[in-house]
Amino acid sequence: MIEFKGVQKTYPDGTEAIKNFNLKVQEGEMLTLIGPSGCGKTTTMKMINRLVEPSAGEIYIDGKDLKDYNIHELRWNIGYVLQQIALFPHMTVEENIAVVPEMKKWKKQQIRDRAKELMQMVGMEPSIYMKKKPSELSGGQAQRVGVIRALAADPQILLMDEPFSALDPISREGLQKDIRKLQQQIKKTIVFVTHDIDEATALGDRICLMNAGEIIQVDTPQKLILEPRNSFVRSFIGDKKSPWQTAVDIVVAQTVSHILTQTDFEAGNFDPEQAYILTSDDGQILCAVEHGKQKDILTMSNDMNVLEAVRVFEKAKASILPVAKGDELIGTVTQQELLHYLASKTEVKNGVVTQ
Ligand SMILES: Nc1ncnc2c1ncn2[C@@H]1O[C@H](COP(=O)(O)OP(=O)(O)OP(=O)(O)O)[C@@H](O)[C@H]1O
Ligand SMILES: [Mg+2]
């Protein structure tokens, strides 16, 4: 739905910010862009809404060249959240949210309903916050307003350039959860820039790792971590902290073979020695099957870290648990796999355990 074909950007001073960039972002996908400072992430984002024009190549949205769009319509259709949220200081929260819907000539009541709906979605009670001015909000609240303002007029595409980097870890985590929930509810195409590999893996359906104006690897978080293309990818990912803090979806070794559908279960089409997660034929998670017996389960969320995953296993009766991104089953993890993962990440030097 967003397609870059042979895109290059050289700024007037000669800086080659983007060199031969080719990428397709699918409809409804959340793609995280990550890479060292100055590698061209913001330039890439700004080319999508034509704040920056490519020096060569084309960008298409829904198969139509960006140059053939009316620039205002294009921008109304693309929500843009910046690192430093620039709310209009003299306007209330409600007025800030209403800016683009008003330009689109929505009816007053419709705008008000939309503002309320969005505020509730991010846990800000409209009766308290609608009439506040930006100066009366905390940093995290202002950031939330920035996000929902970008969403207000129902854009097809959302561009988010390090939207949470100025926030403390708790607000940041809260907003990450919000944005994931929003993404599941509203299915926007989102391009999300971050410096933080944990944020990139927790949020992205795919991660696009850039360096010096080029794409180094575009893959799902698991693939990027398990099959890094080169030493740059490895060292970038290698900055990850302790293995206990790694998101559990990275250690999900089995994505298909431990999943069993109801039909196959009833037909006896499985290995009784193996543990499975049983799903209905349309993919709903039901329970675990171990030695042919059904067991209750708890579902892990993909962004839980390994420590949290171990705690879930402590409470659960099964030795295999499903890992879901929102409502979608993305894989399974067994106690054994977690042990192997931790053992492989742990070294013993002179009798001392190091990570
Ligand atoms: N208007 C401009 N004129 C000249 N050079 C620019 C301009 N904007 C950006 N650059 C240069 O282009 C390169 C890419 O910049 P860009 O802002 O896209 O990087 P970034 O990946 O977003 O970095 P950061 O992580 O620090 O935000 C950098 O070398 C930057 O100095
Ligand atoms: Mg930037």
From TrEMBL:
Domain (CBS): residue spans on this chain: 293-348
Catalytic activity: a quaternary ammonium(out) + ATP + H2O = a quaternary ammonium(in) + ADP + phosphate + H(+)
Membrane topology category: Peripheral membrane protein
GO cellular component, one term: plasma membrane
Domain (ABC transporter) ranges: 2-237
Family: Belongs to the ABC transporter superfamily.
PANTHER family: OSMOPROTECTANT IMPORT ATP-BINDING PROTEIN OSMV
Protein name: Quaternary amine transport ATP-binding protein
Source organism of this protein record: Terribacillus halophilus
Organism lineage string: Bacteria, Bacillati, Bacillota, Bacilli, Bacillales
